Amino acid sequence: MTKCGQIALIAVVLLLTACGNSAVSGPLTPGGTVSSLPSASETHASPTATVDATHSPSARAVGALAPDGLAEVVTTDLVVRTLPEISAASLIEPIRVNAPKLLFVLDGPVTADGFDWYLVAPFDEFVSDIGSPDPRLGWVAAGGDGEQWIAPWSGACPEPTLDAFRFSAELLRVPCFGDREVMLKGELGECSYGSPGTVSPNWLTSSYCTLYGEDFPEGYELVGPFTFHQEPEDFELRDRQLEPVRITGRFDHPAAQTCEQHPVGSEEPDPPELVVLGCRSAFVVTDIEPL
Asked: Which of 10, 97, 191, 247 is the most exposed place for a label (fewest CB within 10 A)?
């Protein structure tokens, strides 16, 4: 997958038109049933890699109903809303989310209308060449009527290998590895120093290099090589392509918090939360050594 494809993957439209609700006679509760409007009085085996084990995120921190945690859907037809409440202003996504979909938690809980709401980005655990129709951002309720609809993720983080990073979803990277130091070995591939894209800073989004594993070129048809970035003053690797190297770096670089999208023309901007999250999932190299 090219870097442009990765950036396009997080492109979403948060606000929906009211026509998405025309099939129901009233607002849907988070579990998918029709309800009445609330009253005004109601409350709203691959190349090796290493991670510093002493600083690895704990299972509780990874699987948690809290910002930067991972949750999983444990029901069917989970409703996703644009606001953490049941109201006419809280639009409903026309597509429901089902188990075993994973959720990156961005905010919450917000207690309103008898529910605990979380702002989430639904995603699949593994990369696929089949596009997902699921909503990319919205508010979901943790449960209701004695039932649980989402729960802390019970899965295990991938091993820090090239193949794991290539085939696992990017949204696993921040909860599983945070800003921990990771070391990878492989063959340095092509680098791109194209013109600035629609997301800045450019060095963290549109400028990048690639790293191939031992099975190259076999096994790269689906998602391509691993992609990494460097800060501007260090980013010049054209003369080292096709060399075996060891790279050391991290996800969740501080500069990711400054990422902004600059839409072109009438292009609809992406939700800023997902723009920043996409940058946080980028791997920034701090050291490169020849092998």
From this structure: 191
Q: Looking up tokens 């910002």, which residue turns up?
A: 67
In a domain, 264, yes or no: yes
From first CA to last CA, the distance across the chain in angstroms is: 26
Helix (H) or strand (E) holding 244: strand 244-250
Same structural domain, 109 and 180: no
Whether 244 contacts 187, CB under 8 Å: yes
Residue closest to 252 by CA, chosen among 231, 286, 270, 279: 279
pTM recorded for the entire structure: 0.81
205 is in which domain, residue-wise?
157-290
At 59-110, the pLDDT tens digits run 557 999 999 999 999 999 999 999 999 999 999 999 999 999 999 999 999 9
- From residue 133, alpha-carbon distances to 93, 122, 130, 140, 228 in Å are 11, 10, 9, 17, 27
Whole-number Å distance between alpha carbons of 225 and 198: 22
Residues with Cβ within 8 Å of residue 192, at least 6 apart in sequence: 3, 206, 207, 208, 209
Cα 167 to the center of its chain, rounded Å: 14
State the DSSP code for 229.
B
138-141: strand order across its sheet: 138-141, 115-123, 102-112, 70-73, 150-152
Beta bridge partners, 92, equal: 81
